[in-house]
Design brief:
- InterPro entries: DUF1996 (IPR018535).
- This is DUF1996 domain-containing protein.
- This protein is mostly beta strands.
- The chain has one domain (about 1-340).
- It contains 3 helices and 17 strands.
- It has helices at about 100, 285-290, 310, and strands at about 1-5, 10, 30-35, 65-70, 70-75, 80, 105-110, 125-130, 145-150, 170, 185-190, 190-195, 205-210, 230-235, 235-245, 260-265, 275-280.
- Strands 1-7-15-11-9-10 form a 6-stranded antiparallel β-sheet, with no helix packed on it. A 5-stranded antiparallel β-sheet has the order 2-3-4-17-8, with no helix packed on it. A 3-stranded antiparallel β-sheet has the order 6-5-16, with no helix packed on it.
- Strand 5 and strand 6 form a beta hairpin.
- The chain is globular.
- The relative contact order is 0.26.
């Protein structure tokens, strides 16, 4: 299992996967990873060959990871982007102080049940999990794919259990109550691939979740039977973000009806539209070597690492010139938010 930090590369309103070439795209994203990130990213080129640096602790990972941002909607209707907090590294368990020092970005997981169990992604591979337009729970929901953890303690406590597994702390949508220690987002990607297509029109059909057995990070890997249409096991990719909502816990600032005040940058007040994009960009066979080796956490002798200071030097210019951090009258690209019920 790899567990490592990727600092923030840029916050921008572009999306080369869903809205290639469009600037601005419909909503703001936070992006981490390699500096090849742009409004358009070629399908037929090894992304790692286009990048010169990365914000990730493993310096051979030039992949890009991005998600929607979280905003606070005050009682007066104005918006403020919620800052991020470092994700705990559990002391020496994961051999990682990069995440403790990162001011923003993600913690990234790549998991397999055992060495040799998975086939690493190939150059040109990309995928999407979640639906930015989803606003309500459907059927049993998709809590195994995306969830929010409500931190109950004052110092971002509550992250000692596997994500999307605790009925008391984890929510498919945004928590309906104040979370004293902040909110953690988890996005878990499919673990089965059709073995042929590096992408698909919806960026989802070429991958699938197992049809039997546990298939979330709770199982620490890629357990479960893959469907015949998608027989190739790929690493369990997961993104983890901690939102520091502690400055927004005053009920006097919340909506008068007491409903939760947070909204994703898509205009989603429910949280059901949480999603994550991924473009593969590991150098050469580095990811396969890591998944076949005895790597754990941020310690992997098969990979090259860099300091959080060095990673922090990597960045890309903002393509859309707009304010995304101050108090805003409307979300960037989303002038209207659904009425609360």
């Amino acid at each position: 299992m790899l567990r490592f930090g990727c600092s923030q590369l840029v916050i921008d309103r572009i999306d080369p996967l869903v809205n290639p070439g469009l600037a601005p795209s419909p909503h703001v994203h936070q992006i981490a990873g390699g500096d090849a990130f742009n409004t358009t990213m070629p399908h037929d080129t090894d992304i790692s060959s286009l990048a010169s640096c990365t914000t990730c602790s493993f310096s051979e990972d030039f992949s890009n990871y991005w998600t929607a941002n979280l905003y606070f909607r005050a009682r007066n209707g104005s918006y403020k982007r919620v800052p991020q907090a470092p994700v705990h590294s559990f002391g020496d368990l994961f051999n990682d102080d990069f995440t403790e020092k990162s001011r923003a970005g993600f913690v990234v997981y790549y998991v397999s049940e055992k060495p040799g169990d998975v086939t690493a992604f190939k150059p040109g591979f990309r995928m999407l999990v979640g639906d930015a337009n989803k606003r309500e729970k459907i059927g049993d929901g998709l809590k195994n794919q995306t969830c929010f953890r409500c931190y109950t303690g004052p110092n971002f406590e509550g992250d000692v259990m596997a994500p999307c597994a605790d009925d008391e702390l984890d929510f498919e949508g945004l928590p309906p109550k104040a979370c004293p220690g902040g909110i953690r987002s988890n996005v878990l990607y499919p673990t089965c691939w059709d073995g042929k297509n590096l992408d698909s029109p919806d960026h989802k059909s070429h991958v699938a979740y197992p049809i039997t057995g546990p298939h979330t990070f709770t199982a620490l890997g890629t357990g479960g039977q893959c469907p015949e249409s998608h027989p190739v096991r790929i690493p369990q990719l997961m993104l983890e973000i901690v939102w520091d909502t502690t400055a927004f816990n005053d009920p006097n600032d919340w909506p008068e009806d007491g409903s939760q005040p947070f909204v994703l940058s898509t205009g989603d007040t429910t949280g059901y539209g949480q999603h994550g994009d991924y473009v593969f960009g590991w150098k050469g066979d580095s990811l396969q070597r890591a998944m076949d080796g005895s790597c754990f956490g941020a310690l992997c002798h098969a990979l090259k690492s860099q300091s959080v200071e060095e990673a922090g030097k990597c960045g890309v210019p903002t393509r859309v010139d707009e304010d995304v951090n101050g108090w805003l009258d409307a979300l960037p690209g989303n002038s209207m938010v659904s009425e609360r019920k």
